[in-house]
Structure formats: structure tokens, C-alpha cells
């Protein structure tokens, strides 16, 4: 146990996760989404514009982040697997704080949780990570309200189903999780705490108070436009790995897509309002200036790009995540960063900010220097991987200029995109002989792997 003086000098940590959130926030320049509370958090800290998940699926991504290990090391490439099923002796991020004398508490979804099926349960949680752990129940898709399942042929955890409801959400898991977090702040004015607050929204079903749907008139919802031949140069493996989330999930009308967009955006604004309640209370408790606040999502989300919805792809919309880090006293606070960072980097970063001993074998790299110098160059590449049916494996390397994807298994293939000239990744340059030099360089980046891409501070 650390001495009282040492412990008192270290900051608290408010560790906020959102489920299935792409960079659709006002602070990232989104023209429609209302997210005033996350916008003010971004203004208080460093907004990372090029942060990437290591696996675009809830369970593998969260396990990688919380263990500090990449998916090839965790050997978790699917949902419904607990971290100690494959890493029995791991010291997780919250566990490291717990060992260092912090109160470690979790409210809501942090490790994998099926939504809506296992909301309110601890099926794949890690008891060794927490002193307190609560998964609040919620009505989810059983919430009374004038909702609609736009894609009824899909399961409850995948269907684009929205429900506006009256009231303030006291029958919803996210509202209850925020209230429990506030209670913990109140009850521990003199204790160091690591408080993990995991929101379900905007994961489907898109359940939110009706007032947040009212922010988004259907007439203002503009479905994504894709070239009719967009998929002609996309390898078959890329289409197979997303399972049944392609072909606009069966939606054939713009009206359906507008309703799907509105549900997603309303869910974001609902989640943002709960973040605001917690931030307001942190200020009221006079803990804001002694708390590291981190906001992240487990992966991105397609909203019709390449005729895809949801996640599980290696395109930018699925691999990139919002990441906000507000650490007291850092010189870069209030300045955005384009440094390449990965979710696996959060473990060593947060531990370093708080003087917490981290394991020596973590596979991420602390980006604390970037918090003081947001404009500095950092890693040379970020790596994301995905797997699918029949042995499909995809691996991606994202550099400043390019994204390179390699598919192995029954449908091998390659993709290369110029992110400066083709940010929506419509043109696969891997088939262009004039791009052979760039393709060769990016193949080498992927083959050299994450160790070779580490920053040299």
C-alpha cells in the first residue's frame, strides 16, 4: 500500500466508455450531432483525431484495451469470452489501480456484455478488476414507446430498432449507471478512485428519451451516398467478414435510413447528457482538477458507407474511434492531436499519469508526451485486425497517408487507400500498377508490425 502522502498526490480517474460510437460528435466537427458535454470535455483536454481500435468488435476490443495486450496475445477474437479464459494471470488496468491503493469501481458495460440480451448481468466481467461492480438493469427493447424495428429480420442485438420514450430514463441502464457513479464520487471525497463508467448507447436498440429524437428532424437526416460501383474493387473477404451488415441491412428506402440515422444520433445525445450530469457533479464535488478523465469508444460504426451498417470492418469508419483525454496540468489541454494512437495504448498512458505500476509486458505505448505536445509526430502506424467465418483474417495498417489491408483465408486479397486524396476509401489502389511503390512500402509496414511502428520520444 502506498503511503498516505503519495496516494493523496495522485489523481482520480474517470474512465468513460461508449458502445459502438464513431466520431459523430460536435467536437469532431459533425454537422448534425448535438454533444455539448463531450464538446466541453474535448475543450478541456486533448482530442485525438486519429485513434484506432485494435479489433472492431466489442469483446476483443475491450479485452485488448483493459489488458494492454493485442488480440493475437489475448487470443480473444470473438464476443462472449472472459479475459481470464485465455489470460488467467493477467493484471488488468483497473486491477493495477486497485493494487496501488485506489478504489476500483465499475458501473455499466466495461468488459463484454451482450446488448440487450445480458444487460444487468456480469456474465463476462472480471471480478478481480473491481472493488465494486454493478451492471444496472434496463428495459432496452422492451421500453414502452412509439418505436419501430426497421430491420425485423435481424436479431435484437443487431436490428436497427429505435424507441423514443417519455420520462427521464430511470428504467434505463445508462441512467442508473450514471447515478451510481455520482454516488461513488460523493461517498469518496478523500479516497483515490478509478471509476469506470460504461454506457450502452449508442449501441442498438436506439432507446432514448423522446426529447433527444426531437433534436433530429427526419428532413435533416441525409443518407450516405455511395458510388454505384463502390464494391467492385473490394475483396470478397471484406464483404464476408461483416456477416449480415452489408447491403444496407435490407433497407431499401431513404425513409428507413433516415429513421436509422435519427435513432443513432438521438442515442448519442442521450449518452452525452449523462456524461454531462457526471461532469457537473465532479465540478460540484471539487474533484474536476484532481481527476484524469478519459472518454473512448470500443470501435467505430458504419452508417451506410460502402452500403454497410454497424461494425466489424477495417474501413476508417469502423476502425477509428473518438478519444478524449483531459489530464490536469497538461500543456496540450485544449488542443487537438493528429498523432496516431491505439486503444491498447490507454493502459500504460493512464497508469503513467497516475504513478501506478504497470506490467512490463504491455503491448501498447504510453502517449503521455503527446498530452504536452499534441502536434508532435508519434507512432508511424496503427494496427487493426478482424476475423470472420471460415478462417477469414484481415489485418490493417494505418499510417499518416495510407491504409493498407491484407486478407488471408479462403478469399485472400489486398486493399490500399490514399487517405489524403480519398478519405472515404472509395478507390482500392492495390490494383493500380502505378501505386506499386506505395503498396510495397505499406506491405512492409504491416509485416514489420506494431513493434517497428512505436514512437521514439
Structure description:
The protein has 457 residues and is of the alpha/beta class. The chain has one domain (4-379): Alkaline Phosphatase, subunit A, CATH 3.40.720. The chain has helices spanning 4-8, 36-44, 58-67, 71-74, 83-86, 93-99, 173-187, 210-213, 236-241, 254-284, 316-319, 346-354, 368-372, 436-452, and strands spanning 12-18, 46-52, 103-108, 132-134, 148-149, 161-165, 193-198, 206-209, 291-297, 302-303, 309-310, 320-326, 341-342, 382-387, 393-398, 402-408, 413-418. The strands form four sheets. An eight-stranded mixed sheet has the order 4-3-7-1-9-12-2-13, with helices on both faces. Strand 14 and strand 15 form a beta hairpin. The protein is globular, with a radius of gyration of 21 Å. Residues 1-8 have low confidence and may be disordered.
End-to-end separation: 31 Å
The order of strands across the largest sheet is 4-3-7-1-9-12-2-13
- What Rg, in angstroms, do the CA atoms define? 21 Å
Query: Helix segment count?
Result: 14
Structural class: alpha/beta
Low-pLDDT segments, ≥5 res: 1-8
Q: Can you tell me the number of structural domains?
A: 1
Backbone shape: globular
CATH class category name: Alpha Beta
Query: What is the overall pLDDT average?
Result: 96
Care to count the β-strands? 17
Q: Which architecture would the CATH scheme give at its second level?
A: 3-Layer(aba) Sandwich
Query: What profile does the largest beta sheet have?
Result: 8 strands, mixed
Within the CATH hierarchy, at the fold level, what is the topology?
A: Alkaline Phosphatase, subunit A
Helix fraction?
25-40%
Amino acid at each position: 500500500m502506498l503511503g498516505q502522502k503519495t496516494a493523496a498526490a495522485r489523481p482520480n480517474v474517470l474512465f468513460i466508455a461508449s458502445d459502438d460510437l464513431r466520431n459523430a460528435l460536435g467536437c469532431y466537427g459533425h454537422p448534425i450531432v448535438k454533444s455539448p458535454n463531450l464538446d466541453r470535455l474535448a475543450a478541456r483536454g486533448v482530442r485525438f483525431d486519429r485513434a484506432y481500435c485494435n479489433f472492431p468488435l466489442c469483446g476483443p476490443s475491450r479485452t485488448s484495451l483493459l489488458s494492454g495486450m493485442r488480440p493475437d496475445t489475448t487470443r480473444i477474437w470473438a464476443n462472449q469470452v472472459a479475459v481470464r479464459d485465455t489470460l488467467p494471470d493477467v493484471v488488468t488496468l483497473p486491477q493495477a489501480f486497485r493494487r496501488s491503493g485506489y478504489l476500483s469501481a465499475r458501473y455499466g458495460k466495461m468488459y463484454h456484455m451482450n446488448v440487450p440480451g445480458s444487460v444487468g448481468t456480469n456474465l463476462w466481467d472480471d471480478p478481480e478488476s473491481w472493488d465494486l461492480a454493478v451492471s444496472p438493469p434496463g428495459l432496452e427493447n422492451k421500453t414502452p414507446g412509439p418505436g419501430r424495428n426497421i430491420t425485423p429480420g435481424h436479431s435484437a442485438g443487431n436490428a436497427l430498432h429505435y424507441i423514443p420514450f417519455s420520462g427521464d430514463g430511470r428504467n434505463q441502464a445508462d441512467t442508473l449507471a450514471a447515478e451510481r457513479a455520482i454516488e461513488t464520487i460523493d461517498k469518496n471525497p478523500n479516497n483515490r478512485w478509478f471509476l469506470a463508467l460504461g454506457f450502452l448507447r449508442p449501441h442498438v436498440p436506439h432507446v432514448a428519451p423522446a426529447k433527444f429524437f426531437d433534436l433530429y428532424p427526419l428532413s435533416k437526416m441525409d443518407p450516405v451516398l455511395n458510388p454505384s460501383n463502390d464494391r467492385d474493387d473490394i475483396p470478397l473477404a471484406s464483404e464476408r467478414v461483416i456477416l449480415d451488415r452489408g447491403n444496407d441491412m435490407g433497407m431499401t428506402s431513404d425513409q428507413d435510413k433516415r429513421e436509422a440515422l435519427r435513432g443513432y444520433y438521438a442515442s448519442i445525445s442521450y449518452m452525452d447528457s449523462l456524461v454531462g450530469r457526471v461532469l457537473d457533479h465532479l465540478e460540484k464535488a471539487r474533484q474536476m482538477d484532481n481527476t484524469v478523465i478519459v472518454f473512448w469508444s470500443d470501435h467505430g460504426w458504419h452508417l451506410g458507407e460502402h452500403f454497410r451498417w454497424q461494425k466489424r470492418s477495417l474501413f476508417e469508419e469502423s476502425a477509428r474511434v473518438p478519444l478524449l483525454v483531459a489530464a490536469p496540468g497538461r500543456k496540450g489541454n485544449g488542443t487537438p492531436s493528429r498523432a496516431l494512437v491505439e486503444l491498447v495504448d490507454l493502459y500504460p498512458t493512464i497508469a503513467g499519469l497516475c504513478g501506478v505500476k504497470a506490467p512490463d509486458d504491455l503491448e501498447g505505448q504510453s502517449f503521455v508526451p503527446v498530452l504536452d505536445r499534441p502536434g508532435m509526430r508519434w507512432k508511424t502506424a496503427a494496427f487493426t485486425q478482424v476475423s470472420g467465418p471460415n478462417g477469414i483474417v484481415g489485418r490493417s495498417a494505418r499510417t499518416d497517408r495510407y491504409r493498407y489491408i491484407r486478407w488471408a483465408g479462403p478469399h485472400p486479397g489486398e486493399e490500399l487507400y490514399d487517405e489524403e486524396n480519398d478519405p472515404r476509401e472509395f478507390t482500392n489502389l492495390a490494383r493500380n500498377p502505378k501505386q506499386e511503390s506505395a503498396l510495397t512500402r505499406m506491405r512492409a509496414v504491416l509485416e514489420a508490425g506494431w513493434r517497428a511502428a512505436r514512437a521514439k520520444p
